[in-house]
UniProtKB/TrEMBL annotation:
Domain of life: Bacteria
Protein name, as recorded: DUF5686 and carboxypeptidase regulatory-like domain-containing protein
Pfam families, alphabetized: CarbopepD_reg_2, DUF5686
UniProt xrefs under InterPro entries: CarboxyPept-like_regulatory (IPR008969), DUF5686 (IPR043741)
Residues forming coiled coils: none
Length: 829
């Protein structure tokens, strides 16, 4: 009923609007893009498109003046005579006559500094004027590509039909085009609610635009703005530590208020800073406009070359509030010679500034889509769209929308599938994929020579995987089902193993999912698998190090999980396990052939005959809960999408119990908990923490497999983005316990705050990491290690490396070493 009432009100409003439209040019006839157009002393506004065309909906023509405002040009106010419901009004703007004759420039007393100091001093006052509002919001986003090749690094570039349909033979065209109409409610500092009334994605009538106000709210009255890293506002409290300023000119707006045009100059090139211009109003020292550039390397995004953010504000003489009426965000990026560009336009209109909101206005739901938000027809959009489409955008909509019907037809999808599903003889060796797009299922065969799965360990020698998988999905209902089987053969132990897996997701509202698996496989004693197959293969074959300790697991298990409340996910598992010890079967390596591998017994690396445990079986039940406090989410008709609130930690709770074991001694109970939290320090960096603890009960004689094992690292290679779940120099099984335990991981990343200020080192554009890790268990001296290193290292745009110095201490034994982080290895396992 609420959505019907809102839509009825909206429909009544737009059908009673009058419209003023036309083209805006300079005095030479060149179109002016993104000119702010608004009705004087109201909050009805729009902007011109890239071709200078605009259309403004007003309640009644002749009741007010129309203002045309553009940086660098004189603001014009024009009274439009009452008449028909549609008026064409073409405007030619004249360049502004900037002057500094009223300002005495004193090298010892920079006038720009005084203006910025006043802007900082009045920041809270000006921000508070818009601390609470509702507004209508419109956005249009376009993402383009130029010179997209057929292959990159030998791999075929895969694009969906809707994206690829508008690329020409050179790989140039629009990849993504969408629009959004919504109603926004905001209360500073962090209360927000957006209701999406209409959403349109070119070539996808079931799509939902991501161009929301929630993801584009940039407020320069805040000290920092979030662009991957925290960028410093030119009027932040500490802005003079980062910027120099130059008063370039002054002019008067249409309300006879003096405006200062101030150039923003970074003091240090590598800092997280803007550069460009900020326009400040005299007397109130409010923001009049923003025209700032962001270089990609300053926000630690090497693939982005430059991003430009522009904002314009309009003044209402009735309430004396400067409010943002338009914003544009554009960028250029590139990789492998391919150029990308994007342009996102935002219009805010029909502001209201309530004294307060009702208590239930804000909650955990950030964005809600109306049920039929993506089903509005062209007539609706043509009537309500505040920024006219360009010829290119109109063509993209027309072409992709007409092709959509064809591309979704059974005849078309069957013909495309038939082409891609052709079977070739060598597919028996290399693998084969089959897909039925119309019926929404696929089949995959990995091939007999699945080289990407090839690995080496001392138990199996070289071993290889193959297998089959089947998937079926239904996007509308959020359902998906998958069934797979994986075959593994070890060439040294001459053993064939196989496992089967299945999963079914019931919906994307509470993500209720059931999954299970069973079969036989080799498993690491530490189920967290602290050493990957790839790293272990390199360590063994090149350095004759045997770190991966394995046992044979025959098992069957079933799991079920779902969100049981906002931010709370509950998962349960029950399974049967039969464990058998394994011994080394090979001594092969590429080098150091005279050396001997350590044994497969993690408790006795020099004992090659005694197994680590006796063969046994048991049943195991595990219940885990994940709690995201303050969890936020977006509601769409096709699902609910959760967003962690960074102000709060994530908590994990677990209870584990084994029963019906082959011997009573293998049965135990365990409780565990983990708290993970990232503390944002603004522009000064990020402090990540991970605290874990737990306790075993009735576990004096349990199998070593069931001990609590901790993620050590003896390879000196790091594979993760952050080291908040690993001890960088601790041997893998040196501190395993069947009693109580507590581990702590902390890591501070300066995000460039320190590194940007160090001469020469700042040329690396890297970040500094400082970490501390500690472990406490009964009957052993505590283990601790301190780390310091550099992240975001690499060549050109590829920052894939990290290096850390590590100092560890336990029971009087100290060790020092270096860990090389190769984050690209995440993709190889």
């Amino acid at each position: 009923m609420r959505n019907f009432t809102l839509f009825s009100f909206l429909f009544f409003s737009i059908t009673t609007f009058s419209q003023i439209k036309g083209t805006i040019t300079d005095d030479k006839g060149n179109p002016l893009p993104f000119v702010s157009v608004f009705e004087e002393n109201t909050y009805a506004g729009t902007t011109s498109n890239e071709q200078g065309k605009y259309q403004l909906n007003v309640k009644e023509i002749g009741k007010n003046k129309i203002t045309f405002q553009y940086l660098g040009f004189k603001t014009q106010k024009i009274a439009v005579a009452a008449g028909s419901k549609t008026v064409t009004l073409d405007i030619q703007l004249q360049e502004e006559s900037f002057a500094l004759n009223e300002v005495i420039i004193d090298p010892k007393n920079n006038p720009a500094n005084a203006i910025i100091k006043n802007a900082i001093a009045h920041k809270k006052e000006n921000s508070d004027k818009t601390e609470r509002y509702t507004a209508d919001f419109y956005s249009k986003g376009m993402f383009k590509v130029k010179d997209l090749p057929k292959k990159i690094l030998g791999k075929k570039v895969e694009l969906g039909d809707d994206m690829a349909s508008n690329l020409d033979s050179t790989g140039t065209g629009i990849l993504y085009l969408s629009e959004t109409i919504s109603k926004v409610s905001l209360e500073k500092p962090n209360k927000f609610k957006e209701n999406i009334i209409a959403s349109k994605v070119s070539g996808n009538n079931r799509g939902y635009s991501y161009n929301t106000a929630a993801l584009s709210n940039y407020d320069f009255y805040d000290n920092t703005l979030d662009f991957d890293v925290k960028l410093i506002s030119p009027i932040a409290d500490n802005a003079f530590n980062y910027y120099k300023y130059k008063l370039e000119s002054t002019f008067y707006d249409d309300n006879n208020q003096q405006i200062y045009k101030i150039k923003v100059i970074p003091k240090r090139d590598k800092e997280p800073v803007f550069e460009g211009y900020i326009y400040i109003v005299d007397d109130s020292f409010a923001i009049y406009a923003i025209d700032l550039d962001i270089k990609g390397y300053r926000m630690k995004n090497e693939f982005t070359e430059i991003m430009t953010l522009k904002q314009s504000f309009s003044y209402n003489t009735k309430n004396k509030i400067w409010s943002k009426n338009a914003q544009t965000l554009s960028f250029n990026a590139g990789i492998f010679g391919v150029k990308f560009s994007g342009n996102f336009n935002y219009v805010y209109s029909n502001y209201e500034f309530p004294a307060s909101f009702e208590k239930k206005t804000f909650g955990n739901e950030l964005v809600a889509f109306d049920l039929n938000a993506n089903k509005k027809d062209d007539a609706f959009w043509n009537e309500i769209r505040p920024i006219p489409l360009t010829i290119e955008e109109s063509s993209d909509y027309a072409k992709k929308d007409s092709l959509q019907t064809i591309r979704k037809s059974k005849k078309y999808t069957d013909s495309i599938d038939a082409k891609n599903n052709k079977f070739k003889v060598w597919d028996i060796l290399m693998g084969y994929d089959y897909k039925n797009t119309f019926k929404k299922y696929s089949f995959d065969y990995k091939g007999l020579l699945n080289i990407s799965s090839l690995s080496f360990n001392t138990v199996q020698g070289f071993n290889l995987d193959s297998g089959f998988s089947f998937k079926k999905w239904n996007e509308e209902e959020g359902k998906s089902t998958s069934i797979s089987t994986t075959f593994n053969y070890g060439f040294s132990d001459e053993r064939f193993r196989a496992i089967g897996e299945f999963s079914h997701r019931f919906n994307t509202i509470n993500y209720a999912t059931i999954w299970g698996s069973g079969g036989t496989k080799t498993a690491q004693f530490n189920s967290a698998e602290p050493i990957s197959k790839f790293i272990n293969s390199i360590s063994s074959l090149f350095f004759k190090d045997n770190y991966m300790k394995l046992y044979n697991l025959e098992f069957a298990e079933i799991n079920y999980g779902q969100d049981i409340a906002n931010g709370i996910n509950l998962t349960g598992k029950i399974g049967y396990e039969q464990r058998k010890p394994l011994l080394n079967t090979t001594d092969y390596s590429f080098f150091k052939k005279d050396d001997i591998y350590s044994s497969n017994n993690p408790l006795a690396p020099n004992d090659f005959t005694t197994p680590a445990f006796d063969q046994h079986h048991l049943f195991k039940a595990l219940l885990t809960t994940k709690i995201n406090f303050g969890n936020k989410y977006i509601s769409r008709p096709d699902g609910r999408f959760n967003f962690k609130d960074d102000r709060y930690p994530t908590v994990y709770l677990a209870f584990e119990k084994t029963f019906a074991a082959s011997e009573k001694k293998y049965e135990y109970e365990r409780i565990g908990a983990s708290v993970q939290y990232d503390l944002s320090l603004g522009n000064k960096g990020l402090l990540g923490t991970n605290f874990r603890g737990g306790k075993f009960f009735n576990a004096e004689n349990i199998s070593f497999i069931d001990y609590r094992h901790f993620n050590g690292n003896q390879t000196h290679i790091g594979t993760s983005e952050r080291y908040l779940n690993v001890f960088n120099m601790m041997p893998y099984y040196s501190n395993s316990t069947n009693d109580s335990y507590f581990e702590m991981h902390t890591e501070y990343n300066d995000t460039g705050f320190i590194m940007n200020k160090i001469p020469l080192l700042n040329l690396l554009k890297s970040t500094m990491n400082i970490g501390f890790h500690a472990l406490a268990i009964p009957d052993k001296k505590p283990y601790s290690e301190f780390t310091i290193g550099l992240d975001n290292l690499g060549f050109g745009k590829f920052k894939l490396f990290r290096i850390d110095y590590v100092h560890s201490y336990q029971g009087g034994i100290q060790q020092n070493g270096v860990v090389f982080g190769l984050k690209i290895l995440n993709a190889l396992d």
